[in-house]
Amino acid sequence: MSLCTVCHLDSKKHSKKLWEQHRKVQFCAFCQKSGSEHSEKLWEIHKAAVEKGRHCNDHHKEEKLYPLTVGFARTCVARVCKLNADSPYDKELIPIYMSCTKCSLYLGSTEEDYADILDGMCLKCFREMTSQTHPWYDIPPAKKATKKGVND
């Protein structure tokens, strides 16, 4: 069941055309892209990641979400966690990340963008599942271009 954030009705009560129009207006809380840039499966994966990360383990309640940019990385979503400290040090922003469905390591931005195609797995686990484990895949592109006797 998906709830439309535009008219607050269940997606089943929408026609396909109306659902697509409303989804174009919506923005993903996880990656801040418009709904038209997501497949239905990717929309659900991102929504589930936000809902899972939104709950604070200490309080068992939903926390507020804010956009957060760490260094030169793209903007992600973070939850506010209240600490037992004096103001202004009583709040901490904790980033919400997606984890691989196989190995539970956190996904990179490319893996998050293609989570619907990779079925929520990291590239390493996806390669192992599809038997693409040849060492050739691990060589960086710059080293693939160099040959013996050239660029010495």
Physical arrangement of strands within the biggest beta sheet:
1-2-3
> What's the N-to-C terminus distance?
60 Å
Q: How much of the sequence is in beta strands?
A: 5-15%
Categorize the overall geometry: globular
Largest sheet: 3 strands, antiparallel
Instruction: Report helical residue fraction.
Output: 25-40%
Total helices: the number is: 6
The parts where pLDDT drops under 50 for at least 5 residues are none
Average residue pLDDT:
79
Please tally the β strands and state the result. 3
Rg over alpha carbons: 20 Å
Structural class: alpha+beta
Describe the structure in brief:
With 152 residues, this protein is of the alpha+beta class.
Please tell me about this protein's structure.
With 152 residues, this protein is of the alpha+beta class. The chain folds into 2 domains: 27-97, no CATH class; 98-137, no CATH class. The chain contains 6 helices and 3 strands. The protein has helices at 16-25, 40-54, 109-113, 115-118, 123-129, 141-145; strands spanning 65-68, 76-82, 91-95. A 3-stranded antiparallel sheet has the order 1-2-3, covered by helices on one side. The protein starts with 15 loop residues before the first helix and ends in a 7-residue tail after the last helix. The model has no long low-confidence stretch (mean pLDDT 79).
Q: What brief labels describe this structure?
A:
globular, single chain, 3-stranded antiparallel beta sheet, 3 strands, 2 domains, 6 helices, alpha+beta, 30% helix, 152 residues
Please render the helix and strand layout as text:
Elements: H1 16-25, H2 40-54, E1 65-68, E2 76-82, E3 91-95, H3 109-113, H4 115-118, H5 123-129, H6 141-145
Antiparallel strand pairs: 1-2, 2-3
